[in-house]
Write a structure and sequence with these properties.
Elements lengths: L10 H21 L14 H7 L6 H4 L3 H4 L1 H11 L7 H4 L15
Length: 107
């Protein structure tokens, strides 16, 4: 919404979406508080890779500083980055990243 929309996103919509994200991230953060991966084991599974795609948006795109707000998720993301063959999405996707055109007024 911030990079492609013709106008700034509606603040009420962003607030609604942020509340949904905070709820979901809160569940995952708590789940990861006692384990390295989403599924009990010594290595990531498809569950980790499937969920991880939502967590690599830069703060200026997502409006969420996961490192500050969800420390267990942040630690998990760092573990994913150390998996052999891992590449951050913006590093492996072709083309250039389109920077957000719109920022929240409080940013």
């Amino acid at each position: 919404m911030r990079a492609f929309g013709p106008a700034a996103p509606d603040p009420a919509v962003l607030a609604f979406l942020k509340s949904r994200i905070d709820g979901a991230y809160g569940i995952v953060d708590k789940h990861l508080s006692g384990r390295d991966w989403l599924v009990v084991g010594d290595a990531p599974t498809i569950a980790d890779f499937s969920l991880s795609g939502y967590l690599f948006y830069p703060v200026d795109e997502s409006g969420i500083d996961v490192a500050r707000s969800h420390p267990h998720i942040h630690a998990w993301v760092q573990r994913l980055r150390r998996v052999d063959g891992w590449g951050d999405p913006y590093e492996v996707l072709p083309g250039e990243r389109i920077a957000p055109r719109w920022v929240r007024p409080d940013e």
